[in-house]
Amino acid sequence: MTSATTTAITLINVLTVSPKKQEMLIDLLLENTETVIRTLKGWIATDLIASADGEQVVIHSRWETQTDIAAMRVDPRMVAYFPRIAALASLNSVVGQVVMSHHR
User: Fold this and answer.
1) Which region, left, alpha or beta, applies to residue 52 given φ > 0 means left and ψ of -120 to 50 means alpha?
2) Between residues 3 and 67, which one has the greater pLDDT?
3) pTM, entire model
4) What percent of the chain has pLDDT over 90?
C-alpha cells in the first residue's frame, strides 16, 4: 500500500554516540519526550530508533508546522536540555515532508 503525501512536517535527528552511552542517551531522550516534547505546540508523534551496533539513535518526530519545530528549538526547557545531549552524542538534523510511504 502507498500513502499519499501528508501535510505534517518530519524532523529526523541522527545522534552518534559511544555504544557504552547509547542506553544513557535513550533514557535522556525518553525523559525529555515525556516531560517536555509532548507538551509543545504542534507536536504530533516521536519514534526513537536505536541502532543495533549501539552507535546511533534516530529521533523521528512529526510536527504540524516548521514554525512549531523552530519554537521547540528555542523553548527554554529545550535550550537547557541540549547541552545534556551534546555531552553524550553528536547531532545531525533533517527537516522535510514525507512525499511517499510504502507499507503492507
Assistant:
1) alpha
2) 67
3) 0.89
4) 87
How far apart (Å, rounded) are the C-alpha atoms in residues 32 and 78?
A: 8
Candidates 3.30.70.100, 2.30.110.10, 2.60.40.1080, 3.40.50.410; CATH matching 8-95: 3.30.70.100
Please provide residue 3's backbone torsions phi and psi, each rounded to the nearest 5 degrees. Answer: -95, 150
Per-residue pLDDT tens over the stretch 17-29: 999 999 999 999 9
Q: In angstroms, what CA-CA distances link 23 with 29, 56, 85?
A: 10, 10, 12
Q: What nine digits make up the cell of 40?
A: 509543545
pLDDT beyond 60 at 40: yes
Domain locations in the chain as residue ranges: 8-95
